[in-house]
Amino acid sequence: MNKFFIYILICISFLNCSKKEKSSPSYHKGDMTILTDESFKSVVEALAEGYMISYPDTKIKVIAKKEDLGFVDMLNDKARIAVMSRDLTPKEIKLYENQVDLKFTPARFAADAVVFFVPKNSKRNSLTFEEIEKGLQSDDKNFIFDGTNSSNLNFVAQKVGKKPRDLKFSIISGNVNLIEELNKYPDKIGVVGLNTISRPYDKEAEKLRGMMKILPIVKDNKSFLPDVDGLRQMRYPFTRVLYFLTNEGNFNIANGFIRYSCTQLGQMVVEKEGLQPYNIYRREVQMR
Known about the structure:
There is one protein chain. By secondary structure, this protein is an alpha/beta fold. The chain folds into 2 domains: 25-110 and 242-277, D-Maltodextrin-Binding Protein, domain 2; 111-239, D-Maltodextrin-Binding Protein, domain 2 (3-Layer(aba) Sandwich). The chain has 11 helices and 13 strands. It has helices spanning 2-23, 41-54, 67-75, 90-100, 129-135, 151-159, 175-181, 203-209, 228-232, 253-262, 264-272, and strands at 29-36, 57-64, 81-84, 107-119, 127-128, 143-145, 170-171, 189-193, 212-214, 217-219, 222-224, 239-246, 276-277. The strands form 2 sheets. Strands 1, 2, 3, 4, 6, 7, 8, 9, 12 and 13 form a 10-stranded mixed beta sheet that branches. Helix 10 packs across helix 11. Keywords: Signal. This is Substrate-binding domain-containing protein.
């Protein structure tokens, strides 16, 4: 009787262990949705593709959604990860920590930028920070953004110390549409995300770059471009750092993806996208 009882206990223990193993978190298999603004969808897709190549049993869907809406959907568990560029307010941080029950820990992975541009044949060659501030308060609405609630509008508003609703601007929906349509409005200035055009060897990005003139931003009598130096040193006034937020509390696919994106392999993907890796790895070569 005692032997039979011991045998039953061993079987129950084995079944419990098997169930725990099946339900235990796994970073190398499973499905996940990431919400990202269109302005930096390209780099997120590239990172997702790299992760799925490394872990073939994972399936990651990247969906474009306005930054603020993506943040709300992630809080409501409609996606595992939201990609952000602007700083959250103290109220939003508190909401995140209460709703998700996690400490606010942004996983920064790339330096991107908001760029101001005009058609290729425009006579304008630069833009001052003061012109941006004044222009966004003018009824002329000379600045054209890709939409309301977009990361570009939110970030520029934050940089000039205003709420998006207090700014005056025009809209052409979508970064690519804006670049292609701006030549119809030669007196206007377009505002898009750098990642839309940053891929150095992509034919579509190359075509878009050929249609626009990126304006240096003049601030404190110094001129800055969203190039490698401008992003790396964060001297370009509209440099922004992209980061991940997740609602996943264990080490499952979301945190596995985030770790991948922030380590050397993921940072190489960021660099190939034409953006500045946030985590710069120092390489040492020994000569003998």
